Amino acid sequence: MLGKVAVLGLIQNYLVGWVLHYVYPPVHQAAPTAHHGTGTPEHAANPLLHFLRDSTIALPVSIAVLIVVAVLARELGLGEGIWSRVGFAAGAAVVAAAANVLTVHAHQPLFVALVTLRYTFALTLAAVVLFGVPWRITSAGEAR
What we know:
By secondary structure, this protein is an all-alpha fold. The chain contains 5 helices and no strands.
């Protein structure tokens, strides 16, 4: 289970980060100063490095969110049906958005949370539809 969740978290984290930095750059970079306390203008940083830095900082939170939601789904006895997959994607999106509100201090945290909510839901749902649920139980009764 951890392998699937880690791969999904890695892909999802950098795709959502890319969307925030390249699809919504005017809104994302509306703050006049950098958000890490350097006092330099946000646009002075290399955009690619800014994206990579922010996404890498967020990676542990993204993976932790998916682990928590997957373990909770397994403990609740969710199956592998479509509604279980939609529920997992919705749960991951809501928890990821809430985590962003708590951890994003720089830009508009509610905007970042809404973008995270939308894209996390879409990416997580696509992953579980294509590759299955991360808490799937094998015939021997072990989680894979």
